[in-house]
Write a structure and sequence with these properties.
single chain, about 140 residues, mainly alpha, 9 helices, extended
Amino acid sequence: NSRGTGSLLKDSISFTEVSASGLFEGHDLLRRGFTSVKNDLLPSHPLELTEKNFQLNQDKTNFATLRNIQGIHAPLKLQMEFRAVKQVQRLPFLHSSNMAMDILRGNDECIGFEDIHGDPSQSEVMGEPHMMMEHKLGLL
């Protein structure tokens, strides 16, 4: 762990979104909806944080088990494959099932809530494609 292999297991998704206007830009009501200070401060249920971080915690335990069984190369190879799969994405206005990620995690044979009712984080209404692409490219 002296070379920072423990840091490789950390989630690298968290980042702050800064637009072209800078840090002092107001809340974009059309894209992000209404804000609630209470929801930002406290979770609505005690298990909400556990459920939000479930996949990350499960990945960390799987990587630790894999490292103990097969050595350091196995979780590093799997993390490299995860990063490669995360980079390949569809356009932001098209729904993606992320089948390759499900196969790597072993969830391809499991039926979950999002398989039947759709992913709750995905909007049911398709947005305007030009505006979404300009936002992703940082032109907006």
